[in-house]
């Protein structure tokens, strides 16, 4: 399978940006962004879809860390 | 250095102030105004002599200060040069990019590291199925080379792309891929062993991820752009956080100091 060329890459990135914008505007409600999601799936190789989905989660997490700071999980209470 | 500057400033100030004090006894007039008034009046010889003397003093101060500044500058340059030599010595001891490579370029010609001796090289490792990072970095690298190309005083910088995915990136795949970037970009591939050898020399980490039903996969790898001097020495590297302007300026500086 040949790698996407520059036009195909651009089409995929554009579809990704539109989907991400829709998700941002709709509180990550994928049901509200179905049309963008199918465009994204159509324009990007399946591996890239998986990669970008994970990448968005990571970027969101990173953003949260930077704005809210790190909240350590509730560990076991100190032994009395 | 600040002391000298202060001294010079003081001298200048005196030059304005003194005639005023002598003529008007320091009445509240603007120094510039009194200066004009002073020169239009009949010249008092002793004042004239004092003025000349002040000018001479100013000149001497400037000359003295200037030569001192010159000395400081010379010492500074010497120190910079010494630091640069020290850096080169240290880099020669680093076991990075000291080895060689022998790979096929995107036209099918065999190329070794020796072929690129004598020119500045920017080197990036990646793969053609890369979703976003490699195209971004290669575009950045191409833009840097294009910017440096515009400066006729600088030697040409050769951009290289070595695949970390020899399984899929054969010669035609690379030929297809490099077209999207700088016209001088050379894509390099080889057998799994050859590619691994080339990467190991630059401590490049590359691991293919799991294959999906289409046999597609993503290769996790080191994202660095390496700068190599005309004598094949690894000089610097740029990570993803470094933007185009930063890299261009850095290379410009490396080329400038290399000539010294």
TrEMBL record, chain A:
Keywords: Disulfide bond, Mitochondrion. It comes from the Eukaryota. One of its GO terms (biological process) is respiratory chain complex IV assembly. It is found in: Mitochondrion. The keyword Mitochondrion applies. Pfam families: COX6B. The keyword Transmembrane does not apply. Gene3D superfamilies: Cytochrome c oxidase, subunit VIb (1.10.10.140). GO terms for cellular component: mitochondrion. This is Cytochrome c oxidase assembly factor 6 homolog. It comes from Sphaeramia orbicularis (orbiculate cardinalfish). The gene is LOC115429824.
TrEMBL record, chain B:
GO terms for cellular component: mitochondrial inner membrane. Cu cation binds at residues 130, 134, 221. InterPro entries: SCO1/SenC (IPR003782), Synth_of_cyt-c-oxidase_Sco1/2 (IPR017276), Thioredoxin-like_sf (IPR036249). This is SCO cytochrome c oxidase assembly protein 2. It comes from the Eukaryota. CDD domains: SCO (cd02968). It comes from Sphaeramia orbicularis (orbiculate cardinalfish). GO terms for biological process: intracellular copper ion homeostasis; mitochondrial respiratory chain complex IV assembly. The lineage of its organism: Eukaryota, Metazoa, Chordata, Craniata, Vertebrata.
């Amino acid at each position: 399978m040949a790698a996407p060329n520059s036009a195909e890459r651009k089409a995929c990135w554009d579809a990704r940006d539109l989907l991400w914008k829709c998700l941002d505007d709709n509180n990550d409600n994928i049901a509200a962004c179905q049309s963008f999601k199918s465009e994204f799936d159509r324009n990007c190789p399946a591996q890239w879809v998986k990669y970008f989905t994970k990448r968005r989660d990571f970027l969101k997490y990173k953003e949260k860390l930077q704005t809210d700071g790190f909240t350590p999980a509730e560990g076991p209470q100190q032994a009395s | 250095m600040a002391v000298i500057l202060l001294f010079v400033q003081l001298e200048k100030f005196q030059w304005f102030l003194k005639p005023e004090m002598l003529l008007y006894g320091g009445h509240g007039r603007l120094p510039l105004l009194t200066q004009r008034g002073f020169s239009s009046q009949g010249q008092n010889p002793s004042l004239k002599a004092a003025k000349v003397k002040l000018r001479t003093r100013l000149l001497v101060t400037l000359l003295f200060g200037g030569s001192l500044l010159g000395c400081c500058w010379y010492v500074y340059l010497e120190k910079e040069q010494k630091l640069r030599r020290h850096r080169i010595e240290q880099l020669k001891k680093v076991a990075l990019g000291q080895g060689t490579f022998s790979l096929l370029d995107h036209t099918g010609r065999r190329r070794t590291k020796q072929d690129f001796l004598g020119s500045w090289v920017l080197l990036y490792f990646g793969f053609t199925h890369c979703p976003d990072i490699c195209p971004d970095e290669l575009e950045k690298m191409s833009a840097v080379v294009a910017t440096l190309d515009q400066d006729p005083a600088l030697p040409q910088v050769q951009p290289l792309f070595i695949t970390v995915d020899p399984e899929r990136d054969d010669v035609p795949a690379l030929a297809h891929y490099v077209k999207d970037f700088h016209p001088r970009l050379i894509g390099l591939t080889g057998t799994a062993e050859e590619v691994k050898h080339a990467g190991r020399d630059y401590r490049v980490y590359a691991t293919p991820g799991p294959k999906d039903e289409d046999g597609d996969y993503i290769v996790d790898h080191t994202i660095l752009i390496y700068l190599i001097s005309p004598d094949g020495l690894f000089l610097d590297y740029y990570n993803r956080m470094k933007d185009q302007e930063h890299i261009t300026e850095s290379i410009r500086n490396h080329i400038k100091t290399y000539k010294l």
